[in-house]
């Protein structure tokens, strides 16, 4: 019913030459003395990264690495979806959903580990991201596409996992398609929005609510811009590679467990490969526009009935057990010793251990 074709990344050399020209002719802004990261992106590190991008980074080498995984393009209801599909003999289908400002590359370290554990892996690029079509959809619309994609691949029931935007999408999919989604693994269980009755909250939940509100005031400006005026920002980010890098890497610094050294979690090559996926596809605008579409959709959140595992990493949202139990059918709750918002990337072994043990326990219980 749905057309699925093999896909390989092959970026025209003219696009790489254009990137080189833009990097070479960057018009740098003024910079506060000894700014560090306190004003946002660290000027010294951004210049260092831009120099490396221009002089040392080899897109063709990383393009070849990305192409080592079997990739496909599927037309699902008129939307072209790019995805990695790794088959094993384990009969444990698992769809992994990324967020922003990462990409399907979020899972590049966990793919071989999960495949070795017998999982069939489907790792799509969200609509509006990477090599998928430049269309911004809400979670309900994307959940429909994900389930149809899985069905087209022969998986009528499956597991699902996700982080960042992939978290609420995974929860939405579990609620809309309870017969298809057997169990889910997420790294947050939604956030308090201030409308909760405080008399119903535990002390841990009240602390969590306060932490989230403080985080929104301190770190949430990007999300408000994406959700209200994405087009205004899109022109600048699509035109300037350094501007795009600045917008993206600041989040990798703040949200990761890098403890002041971003390269303790991500190499320059990894940071730039993720940025390149946005740059060569020109999808930064459609990716941030997805926040606007999600905000307008205003989908009512429901408690997830599917068995759910929640893993809490130190520099990500500190979801208390009580809140997770309120929002999902919690079957596994683990507080990890290290890692952050990009957990499958930062701490792949820990993330895979949580996913593998939970899904395998589910299968053993059902059997």
**Percent of residues in helices:** 40-55%
Through-space gap between termini: 32 Å
* Class based on secondary structure composition and strand pairing: alpha/beta
Backbone shape: globular
The H/E string reads: EHHHEEEHEHEHEHHHHHHEHEHH
How many structural units, i.e. domains? 1
CATH-defined superfamily: Alpha/Beta hydrolase fold, catalytic domain
CATH-derived topology = Rossmann fold
Identify the CATH class. Alpha Beta
Counting DSSP H or I runs of 4 or more residues, the number of helices is 15
Specify Rg, calculated over alpha carbons: 20 Å
Please give the CATH architecture. Answer: 3-Layer(aba) Sandwich
Task: Describe the 3D structure.
- With 367 residues, the protein is of the alpha/beta class.
- The chain has a single domain (3-23, 36-366), classed as Alpha/Beta hydrolase fold, catalytic domain (Rossmann fold), CATH 3.40.50.1820.
- Helices cover 47% and strands 16% of the residues.
- The protein has helices spanning 13-24, 43-55, 59-66, 111-116, 139-152, 166-176, 203-219, 221-228, 230-239, 241-255, 268-281, 284-297, 321-327, 343-346, 348-366, and strands at residues 3-7, 71-76, 79-86, 92-97, 119-124, 158-162, 181-186, 304-312, 328-335.
- The protein has a nine-stranded mixed beta sheet, with helices on both faces.
- A hairpin with a 2-residue loop joins β2 and β3 (79-86).
- It is globular, with a radius of gyration of 20 Å.
């Amino acid at each position: 019913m749905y057309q699925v074709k093999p896909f390989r990344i092959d970026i025209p050399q003219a696009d790489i030459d254009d990137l080189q020209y833009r990097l070479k002719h960057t018009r740098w802004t003024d910079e506060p003395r000894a700014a560090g990261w306190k004003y946002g992106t660290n000027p010294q590190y951004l210049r260092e990264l831009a120099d490396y991008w221009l002089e040392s980074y080899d897109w063709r080498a990383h393009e070849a690495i990305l192409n080592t995984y079997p990739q496909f393009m599927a037309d699902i209801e008129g939307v072209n979806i790019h995805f990695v599909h790794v088959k094993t003999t384990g009969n444990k289908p698992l769809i992994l959903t990324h967020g922003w400002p990462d990409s399907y590359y979020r899972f590049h370290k966990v793919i071989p580990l999960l495949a070795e554990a017998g999982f069939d892996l489907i790792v799509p690029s969200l609509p509006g991201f990477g090599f998928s079509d430049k269309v911004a959809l809400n979670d309900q619309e994307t959940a429909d596409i994900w389930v149809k994609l899985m069905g087209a691949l022969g998986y009528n029931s499956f597991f699902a996992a996700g982080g960042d935007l992939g978290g609420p999408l995974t929860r939405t999919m579990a609620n809309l398609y309870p017969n298809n989604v057997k169990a889910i693994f997420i790294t947050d269980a939604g956030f308090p929005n201030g409308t909760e009755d405080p008399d119903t909250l535990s002390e841990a939940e009240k602390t969590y609510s306060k932490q989230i509100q403080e985080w929104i005031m301190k770190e949430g400006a990007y999300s408000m811009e994406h959700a209200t005026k994405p087009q205004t920002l899109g022109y600048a980010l699509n035109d300037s590679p350094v501007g795009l890098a600045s917008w993206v890497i600041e989040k990798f610094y703040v949200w990761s467990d890098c403890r002041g050294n971003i390269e303790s979690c991500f190499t320059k090559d990894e940071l730039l490969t993720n940025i390149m996926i946005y740059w060569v596809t020109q999808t930064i605008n459609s990716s941030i526009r997805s926040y606007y579409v999600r905000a307008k959709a205003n989908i009512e959140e429901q408690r997830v009935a599917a068995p759910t595992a929640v893993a809490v990493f130190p520099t990500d949202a500190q979801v208390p057990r009580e809140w997770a139990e309120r929002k999902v059918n919690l079957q596994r709750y683990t507080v990890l010793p290290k890692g952050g918002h990009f957990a499958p990337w930062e701490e792949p072994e820990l993330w895979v251990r949580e996913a593998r043990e939970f899904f395998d326990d589910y299968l053993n219980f059902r059997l």
